[in-house]
Design goal:
Blueprint lengths: L1 H6 L1 H25 L5 H23 L3 E3 L2 E4 L3 E4 L5 E3 L11 E3 L19 E8 L1 H4 L9 H12 L9 E8 L5 H10 L8 E6 L1 H8 L5 H4 L11 E5 L2 E5 L4 H13 L7 E3 L4 H10 L27 H18 L3 E6 L11 H11 L3 E3 L1 H10 L14 H18 L18 H12 L3 H12 L5
Parallel strand pairs: 6-7, 6-8, 8-12, 12-13
Antiparallel strand pairs: 1-11, 2-3, 4-5, 9-10
């Protein structure tokens, strides 16, 4: 049925004009030939009504939803609302690709409830990144993390029997940049003592790190942009961070949006009338101006303007800090590179990234090569109307991470709990976090607690 939506809108866009023209010509012919041709406009009207009704039925059976799935956070900027069950359908008014029920855990991540303490013999892996890791476009069991977990349980690392227990934790948060990935590690992921930490990076991730303002479609602040993201900068070679400047405004804007346009909820169904949009398009002066048509094809992953000057250096400095903290905690950081050479600004940037990983004892997964090969063969790894991975794309990502583990990793003993030297966060990390929190006013903290207390589920 999705193919119908993609193939027939062109006819829908011309249908109002066709009905008018056909009706006029039929009226003239009827006056000349009599009533013998009156069946023609009747047939056209019947066909038009059946077509529009069919298209409208598809839209009604596959509705789109507006969802405020993220809530303000004074440290991370934002993350998913804990325990908030909702449906993700993409950005179109209907759902031509997917309609997935998502329920984050009590910490606000799309994962199962996990214990901080790791049982002896457990192989624990953490996945960090943005929406490609969250994978809200596929059922939970088909996300890359769950596919990887199932395979490791069945096959292990290829060096002996599978581990007694395998856990792959998903810490992906939509629209997070590299700096926020570091904060997610410090605030949450490090507390679970993972043995391996995969971080998914791409030009998009690097761009987000230096993107100060977030638009209204994310924050709910109509008509303006907010700095809801914690910012990182290099000052005299030192990595400096600052909390979200407009945190309070973010909280107030989202609360107002929930109380007014969303009727006290965080999710609302989109309403789309095929006939109204076709008529509206005709009134705007050209056929099909508002009719449902095939959405723009999903662009190649990573296709974006070159990075701003200094952006790559900043991102690499953040990744170096992340690698240091993961290593101190007793884990191993692996970088999943989904970038393309031209997207990193200069032809030799990829080699620089690989040298960086080698210098900082970071594992490297050249996932970009697999993506480009798949596209060259015509394989579909992303949705037709959405740049995120479909089931095949998630499976390919899981395969790439599993390949690295079986090729490079050696079994790490989990029988003994880690000592004090392997605590997830050191004193300097805790100090930085405390300074960031103190920079948010008492009113901000109170507002955040009020916002969380009054959260309404759809």
């Amino acid at each position: 049925m999705s193919a119908l939506v993609d193939s027939l809108p062109a006819l829908c866009s011309l249908l109002p004009v066709g009905l008018v023209v056909t009706g006029g010509l039929t009226a003239l012919l009827a006056g000349w030939l009599g009533r013998r041709v009156l069946w023609l406009p009747v047939a056209v009207l019947v066909f038009g009504n059946v077509y529009i009704a069919t298209l409208q039925a598809y839209v009604l059976l596959h509705p789109g939803f507006d969802v405020l799935y993220a809530e303000p956070d004074p440290v991370l900027g934002w993350k998913q609302v804990p325990d908030f069950e909702h449906v993700r359908t993409g950005w179109l008014d209907w759902a031509p690709d997917y309609s997935v029920t998502v329920r984050p855990n009590s910490l606000g991540f799309r994962d199962l409830e996990r214990s901080f303490e790791k049982e002896p013999g457990t192989l624990r892996i953490a996945l960090l990144g943005a929406s490609m890791i969250e994978a809200a476009q596929v059922p939970f069991e088909q996300t890359a993390g769950q596919v990887l977990e199932a395979r490791l349980r069945a096959e292990g690392l290829g060096t002996g029997p599978p581990p007694a227990r395998v856990e792959v934790l998903n810490f992906g948060v939509p629209a997070h940049g590299t700096g926020q990935v570091l904060l997610v590690w410090e605030e949450y992921a490090s507390r679970f003592h993972p043995d391996f930490v995969f971080v998914y990076v791409s030009p998009h991730t690097f761009h987000l790190t230096v993107e100060e303002l977030q638009k209204e479609n994310f924050t709910g602040a109509k008509g303006r942009e907010l700095q809801a993201r914690p910012m990182f900068r290099l000052v005299d070679g030192e990595l400096r961070r600052s909390p979200p400047r407009d945190y309070e405004a973010f909280v107030a804007a989202q609360r107002q949006l929930i109380e007014t346009e969303y009727g006290g909820a965080r999710s609302r169904r989109r309403h789309y009338s095929v006939l109204r949009e076709c008529v509206g398009g005709l009134r705007r002066g050209w056929p099909g101006g508002g009719c449902p048509g095939p959405a723009p094809a999903a662009p190649v992953l990573g296709q974006r303007d070159p990075l701003a000057p200094g952006a790559l250096e900043l991102n690499l400095r953040i990744l170096a800090e992340l690698a240091k903290q993961v290593r101190t905690a007793g884990g191993k950081l692996i970088l999943v590179d989904a970038a393309r050479v031209e997207d990193l600004g200069r032809p030799r940037q990829r080699q620089r990234l690989m040298r960086f990983c080698a210098a900082h004892e970071i594992g490297y997964v050249p996932f970009h090569a697999e993506l480009l090969e798949a596209y060259a063969r015509g394989e579909s790894l992303v949705w037709a109307h959405d740049i995120h991975f479909n089931e095949a794309g998630n499976a390919r990502l899981a395969e790439a991470m599993h390949r690295w583990l079986t090729t490079h990793a050696r079994r790490r003993s989990s029988a003994q709990p880690r000592g004090a030297s392997a605590q997830p966060r050191g004193a300097s990390s805790a100090s930085r976090r405390s300074r960031m929190r103190r920079s948010v006013s008492g009113r901000s903290a109170a507002t955040s607690r009020s916002s969380r207390g009054s959260r309404t589920r759809s």
